[in-house]
Amino acid sequence: MKVNQAEIVISAVKPNQYPEGNLPEFALAGRSNVGKSSFINRMLGRKALARISSKPGKTQTLNFYLINEILHFVDVPGYGYAKVSKKEREAWGKMLETYFTSREQLKAVVLITDLRHPPTADDILMYDFLKHYGIPCVVIATKADKIAKSQWQKHLKVTKETLGLSADDYLILFSSETGEGKDKVWSLLEHLANK
Fold first, then answer.
1. pTM above the 0.85 mark?
2. What is the rounded average pLDDT of the residues 60-81?
3. Which of 10-24, 53-67, 108-122, 175-189 is predicted with the least confidence, judged by mean pLDDT?
4. Backbone phi, psi, residue 57, to 5°
5. In whole angstroms, what is the distance from residue 115 CA to residue 33 CA?
6. How far is CA 39 from the centre of its chain?
7. Which residue intervals of the chain are DSSP H helices?
């Protein structure tokens, strides 16, 4: 998909703040510092629409990006960052759970993991949560440019086995640096948007 138009339309914390209408939505979840903002910017062909922070845990709201006026990306707070208070983490957890389990426009959650390392305990928790609620999941193993191409399949296998991916899950290798996997991700999201 060629992105001609992309803008952040709202940062929400409660359902009554979510955008109205029936546009398909894809939530982007992942550990703080895994590269979600870089993923968004590469997918949208923008340099800095999603702000990349040197401080993890910066996203504290659900940020809705309107793309080509046909779908939304929803950037959700990163998890697994220790410097956030327990109370704040619980508030985020509640906000995410409400969004993930009650939003009819949500077509799938894009779970971003780091290809260089096995998925973390938090990644596994998130994946299991999505499976429990029957929410379609697309796993993006990013930072592929940091690993030799000859090692890609080995690392993908580790990701697959650690999360316990099922046959109906999607796993795509990605690099925000080179754009590897970008077209694959777009064609899958377009397919899921029309389901």
1. yes
2. 88
3. 53-67
4. 80, 20
5. 13
6. 8
7. 36-44, 86-102, 121-132, 152-163, 182-193
